[in-house]
Amino acid sequence: MTHEAATGGAGGPGLPQERRLVTAVPGPRSLEKFARRQQLVAAGVGTTLPVFVERAGGGVLVDADGNSLIDLASGIAVTGVGNAAPEVVERVVAQTAAFTHTCFMVTPYDGYVDVCAKLAELTPGTHAKKSALFNSGAEAVENAVKIARAATGRTAVAVFDHAYHGRTNLTMAMTSKNMPYKQGFGPFANEVYRAPMSYPFREPAEIDGVGAADRAIDLLEKQVGAANLACIVIEPIQGEGGFVVPADGFLPRLKEWTSANGIVFVADEIQTGFCRTGDWFAVDHEGVVPDLLTLAKGIAGGFPLAAVTGTAEIMDAVHAGGLGGTYGGNPVACAAALGAMEAMETHDLSAAARRLGAVMTHRLDGLAKAHPCIGDVRGRGAMVAVEIVGADGRLPDPVRAGALSAYCHSQGVVTLTCGTYGNVLRFLPPLVMPDALLEEAFDVLAEAFEATA
Ligand SMILES: *Cc1c(COP(=O)(O)O)cnc(C)c1O
């Protein structure tokens, strides 16, 4: 069935918003290309679904065999504005024709400063803010830690159970899950300490958000000492760790404690930022104003760009020349970010995220009634997941989660799994997805529950 494209998305104007299967998924052309990939690309680089994409826009990916797949991944929460969004393409084309690189540290240009201005305006709090731009989320997290250490003169970093912060050496240490992110890659950076997270589905109901925060604070005070902590780094809603939404009150209590103890509060909004959760940033929901935010993924409609944005005084604690990188804030990536943020504003993609989230949650609540293997439906806005469990209602069932995802793939719906236990199915549609196409994807998911029962 063909649905109206929500935007004139360029992958593009005229790319029908439909699920259309003309071969098996993956089809013969994709399989041939995948065989070549296996010969030439390092085995350590994984693949969720081996279809080779040739065009994409709105809510669909079109593969080399002509199959049109419904995209519930957005390239891991990146293409919130849709693939090849017109606002992004236009600015990227113009910037590419003008110049492609100077290195901002050699000779600056407006795009970088314009992105910093936009981030100061959109991030929480009315205080003076500054930003520094980088290439990837992991690089932003590394730099947030550098800035926090320089600002406090302290070294310890606190992170949480189930956290994901990246694949570089420091961010591997900060990431919780061993396999596949850390196995065999040590030794890891020291001075990283892990505290318990608020994970309502997997802890007793009497532990509320404030109680869970106090539990983490107690551990950090006893095992590390507040006076040694440069920063805590926390995802307001965890991404790779399983879309864990902490109980209400958890983040505000942590923020209160960090402020009282001179600890920099870093919100890692790399997955949750830029309208994904129905607000510009996930912390907006609880009225928490972080000292620093790390931003990437959704920021630039698919171009590699990342940022650390925060309190001017903290950002300015680093000596001149202490931050940077050859490509950080590349002019083409900055042009893409300005286009993406314009698209978020003109199409009110926060409202779109809330609407898509309501559709998904409604469908998933219905499925949960029929299928006891759905232990929990959670998330916010268009960042929604189900946790798949065994007959006891708790034991993680990663095999069933994998089978559900595989069924969706075979029927032309791109889904992702995540979670410490690998048993969480997560849904991250582009925020420009037509509602009817999303409904069709969830019809397929409903079939998947029947087919894998
Ligand atoms: C993806 C992600 C990162 C790492 O970003 P990369 O661009 O892959 O380096 C860090 N933190 C969170 C919360 C993420 O989701």
TrEMBL record:
SUPFAM superfamilies documented for this protein: PLP-dependent transferases
PANTHER family: AMINOTRANSFERASE CLASS III, LEUCINE_METHIONINE RACEMASE
Membership in a protein family: Belongs to the class-III pyridoxal-phosphate-dependent aminotransferase family.
Domain of life: Bacteria
E.C. numbers: 2.6.1.19, 2.6.1.22
Broad enzyme group: transferase
InterPro entries: 4NH2But_aminotransferase_bac, Aminotrans_3, Aminotrans_3_PPA_site, Class-III_PLP-dep_AT, PyrdxlP-dep_Trfase, PyrdxlP-dep_Trfase_major, PyrdxlP-dep_Trfase_small
NCBIfam families: GABAtrnsam (TIGR00700), PRK06058.1 (NF004714)
Residues annotated as signal peptide: none
Pfam families, alphabetized: Aminotran_3
Pathway it works in: Amino-acid degradation; 4-aminobutanoate degradation
PROSITE patterns according to UniProt: AA_TRANSFER_CLASS_3
Keyword Transferase: yes
Name of the protein in question: (S)-3-amino-2-methylpropionate transaminase
Keywords on record: Aminotransferase, Pyridoxal phosphate, Transferase
GO biological process: gamma-aminobutyric acid metabolic process
Gene that encodes it: gabT
Catalysed reactions, semicolon-separated: (S)-3-amino-2-methylpropanoate + 2-oxoglutarate = 2-methyl-3-oxopropanoate + L-glutamate; 4-aminobutanoate + 2-oxoglutarate = succinate semialdehyde + L-glutamate
Keyword Transferase: yes
Requisite cofactors: pyridoxal 5'-phosphate
GO function terms (MF aspect): (S)-3-amino-2-methylpropionate transaminase activity; 4-aminobutyrate:2-oxoglutarate transaminase activity; identical protein binding; pyridoxal phosphate binding
